[in-house]
Automatic annotation (TrEMBL):
The keyword Kinase applies. Residues 384-527 form the Phytochrome chromophore attachment site domain. The keyword Amino-acid biosynthesis does not apply. GO terms for molecular function: kinase activity. Pfam families: GAF, HATPase_c, HisKA_2, PAS_8, PAS_9. Keywords: Coiled coil, Kinase, Transferase. Residues 195-245 form the PAC domain. Residues 541-568 form a coiled coil. It comes from Anabaenopsis circularis NIES-21. InterPro entries: GAF, GAF-like_dom_sf, HATPase_C_sf, HATPase_dom, His_kinase_dom, PAC, PAS, PAS-assoc_C. Residues 568-762 form the Histidine kinase domain. This is Signal transduction histidine kinase. In the N-terminal section; belongs to the phytochrome family.
Length: 764
């Protein structure tokens, strides 16, 4: 009774059919409802009437294989009474029913599930097609075991692998850090999906890259899976790392750079300062909420407003400010401002206190140098001492901004007077005023003799004597600078003499003097002392100049007389030599023997060569200076004429440098040229042959080289010219070795060439 009740009221369709005839024996209400047949109709049908023709072979095969102990699952399609087919899953059990071998079949309608699976398969196919077209690496992994089920070509390209290298491999293989895989699953479980999760992945070749991963759950081939879409961000990550390193580097620079740096927001509030700012200003960023920063470092309201306007302008120009630091000091700072893209303002500053001090010192130094140049220039322009002193006191008063500057000169008895003064209008003039001063005459002021200089800020507080104060009061002096003017003693006296004082007067009020101001007067006192000494020297020089001019006039007169005398001597020597030459010529005209005539002619030529030197000397504009070029050319030409040989037959060439020869060297060279040219004319060109003679004279280092060369027949090879019996060659050899202290060489190629080399003597 209970089994019947359960069979009839079971919500799932149930059949019982005869295993032999396949005819229905019974169906429950759920089967009648599902298939649309009445119970009477079912009992008249076989189970094969419900099966789709394509599933009948499988049914019959199952029935044949599992006749006994039948218990199997089977999916197929059944036809309903309205002609529609439904997808079912059957579970068949072997039973005995009404004494017949029967099958009890439980039926589950899986039409909807099949439709879903079909849709899933279609979706999977579409997914694969779409995945291949997505320009990003895409992967599907099974949720249960983490195996990679599918991936697109972009994935293979990104991981530098093939499908066989990655499909069905653990998804952990692609993670650089395996633990990161578990972290991803944990986050995915918490959030349901993940987007833009940065992770480092590993390629097949072992290299790594950064990627953004987006993960979500899906059903793939009927299994729970995870879809991962990746995007390679290695370049972005490298850029990000580089920017981070740059930012850290820049921040490190900002912290260490020897410049003050401050960030100011658009509202004008200070947001960040570097260590240099804190070091110089003395404040720290955490101090600012408890105090008004600008009021602290710029107490003056007008200065503070100027600073605020300068910051807001951010025009990237530099400006200088007086800044009060925490310890109360005032420092010089220089700032510029840059407006950043986020509208913040970055201020860049530096402590320029030392630079400002240096600039002021340089300005003072330049003013001092300019004053010194002015005084020195005045000394160069005029050695008039009064002009120099007047210019000096004028320049010093303007430079020191005092009411009076004077130069006070001592007399031998130590009385004195003002010899130069520059005084501002309205104050008492001391120049030309009789000054009654007994202080120095009574021995006071001995320190000035020793070079002492004084800077008195207040004459009533300096411990001055009453006579000194009384003297200063006459000229309304409240403070002064005093430096001595000392003249160096020359000769046997060693030391200096006090000539006077250079004094600057502050008359309007006491004054604290700077050390460089006293040094300036000290330097000027030295310059004035030099000017005084130069002026004295100039006066002495003028006296000496007059005497020297007289002596020079007498010397010129004596020199003119000597020059006339020397010219007369050279003229008379030349005349005497010409008389001897004329006597030889007259005597030769009475001779018949050609050899004797030749000897007379040679002697005449020798005398003429010496005579020509004296003629050159007394006709020269400068007495004692020989024109070597003119002398040699004239000598050579006169020799040709004496032998009655024209230039059309013998080509005379000269290359004579303007060397310096004394009279002895010139006579020796003239005689040598005479002898060698005479030999050429006698022996080098027989039968009146044509040829050339070349004479050269030049400086070579500290020697003079002279050569006489011809292109004639040449000297015979068996002639020993060093031991020749010829008077001419013997004379040449003696002149070279004895007179000129030189040497001579002979070349016999293509004629004859004598080369004489001798030292050059400097005329004293």
């Amino acid at each position: 009774m209970n089994n019947e009740f359960l069979f009839t009221n079971n919500p799932s369709p149930i059949w019982i059919y005869d295993r032999e005839t396949l005819k229905f024996l019974n169906v429950n209400e759920a089967a009648i409802s599902k298939y649309g047949y009445s119970k009477v109709q079912f009992l008249q049908m076989q189970i094969t009437d419900l099966y789709h023709v394509e599933h009948l072979p499988a049914l019959l095969e199952n029935l044949s294989n599992y006749q006994y102990n039948l218990n199997f699952h089977h999916q197929c399609r059944h036809c309903c009474q309205n002609g529609k087919y439904i997808d079912v899953e059957t579970v068949t059990h072997a039973i005995e029913y009404e004494h017949k071998n029967s099958h009890l079949v439980y039926i589950q309608d899986i039409t909807e599930r099949k439709a879903i699976e079909g849709n899933l398969l279609a979706s999977e196919a579409m997914f694969r097609a779409v995945a291949e077209r997505i320009p990003a690496p895409l992967m599907i992994s099974r949720l249960s075991d983490g195996l990679i089920l599918n991936a697109n070509q972009e994935f293979f390209k990104a991981f530098r692998c093939e499908s066989v290298d990655i499909i069905n491999c653990p998804v952990t293989d692609i993670y650089h850090d395996i633990n990161e895989s578990q972290n991803l699953l944990t986050e995915l479980e918490k959030q349901g999906s993940l987007h833009n999760y940065e992770i480092m992945l590993k390629r097949a070749d072992g290299s790594t890259f950064w990627a953004i991963a987006s993960l979500q759950h899906l059903i793939f081939n009927g299994e729970s899976a995870i879809l991962s879409v990746l995007s390679d961000i290695t370049e972005h990550k490298n850029t990000e790392t580089h920017l981070k390193e740059q930012n850290e580097f820049l921040q490190s620079i900002f912290e260490r750079i020897p410049l003050m740096i401050a960030l100011i927001n658009p509202a004008g509030q200070l947001e960040w300062v570097n260590q240099e700012w804190e070091k110089i200003i003395g404040w720290k960023l955490e101090d600012f909420p408890s105090c008004d920063l600008l009021t602290s470092i710029y107490p003056n309201a007008e200065d503070r407003q100027y600073v605020m306007n300068f910051v807001q302008s951010a025009d990237q120009t530099w400006d200088d400010f007086k800044t009060k630091v925490r310890d109360g000091r005032i420092v010089d700072t220089s700032w510029t401002n840059i407006r950043l893209p986020n509208n913040q303002i970055m201020g860049i500053g530096q402590d320029i206190t030392y630079r400002k001090q240096t600039e002021r010192a340089l300005k003072t130094q330049l003013e001092r140098e300019q004053l010194m140049r002015t005084v020195v220039q005045r000394i160069h322009q005029s050695l008039n001492l009064q002009d120099i002193l007047d210019a000096t006191v004028q320049e010093v008063r303007h430079l020191l901004q005092v009411e009076r500057v004077i130069v006070y000169q001592f007399a031998p008895d130590m009385s004195g007077k003002v010899v130069a003064e520059s005084v501002e209008s309205g104050w008492t003039v001391s120049l030309g005023v009789q000054i009654e001063d007994t202080c120095f005459q009574t021995g006071r002021g001995v320190d000035y003799h020793q070079g002492r200089k004084r800077a008195i800020a207040d004459i009533y507080q300096a411990g001055l004597t009453n006579c000194h104060i009384h003297l200063l009061e006459q000229f309304e002096v409240k403070a002064n600078l005093v430096v001595p003017i000392l003249l160096e003693l020359g000769g046997e006296n060693i030391g200096s003499r006090l000539w006077g004082l250079l004094v600057a007067h502050q008359c309007s009020s006491p004054r604290e003097w700077e050390e460089n101001q006293l040094d300036l007067l000290d330097q000027l006192s030295v310059t004035i002392a030099i000017a005084i000494q130069k002026s004295s020297i100039f006066q002495q020089a003028q006296t000496e100049l007059v005497e020297r001019q007289k002596a020079e006039k007498q010397l010129r007169s004596a020199l003119a007389e000597k020059e006339i005398l020397l010219k007369e001597v050279h003229h008379r020597v030349k005349n005497n030599l010409q008389i001897v030459s004329s006597l030889l010529q007259l005597q030769s005209q009475t001779l018949k023997d050609p050899e004797v005539i030749r000897v007379f002619q040679d002697s005449q030529n020798r005398i003429d060569s010496i005579s020509l030197i004296h003629k050159n000397l007394y006709t020269s504009p400068n007495i004692g200076e020989l024109d070597v070029v003119d002398y040699i050319q004239t000598l050579a030409t006169s020799i040709l004429i004496s032998y009655q040989i024209g230039l059309e037959r013998i080509d005379l060439k000269t290359n004579i440098a303007a060397v310096s020869l004394n009279v002895d060297q010139a006579i020796a060279c003239g005689l040598i040229i005479n002898e060698l040219i005479s030999n050429c004319l006698k022996h080098a060109f027989p039968n009146e042959e044509k040829g050339s003679i070349t004479i050269t004279l030049q400086n070579i280092n500290n020697h003079i080289e002279m050569s006489i060369q011809d292109n004639g027949v040449g000297i015979p090879n068996d002639l020993d010219w060093n031991n020749s019996s010829s008077l001419g060659l013997s004379l040449v050899y003696d002149l070279v070795t004895e007179q000129l202290e030189g040497s001579m060489t002979l070349e016999r190629h293509h004629g004859t060439k004598f080369t004489i080399k001798f030292p050059q003597f400097i005329l004293q």
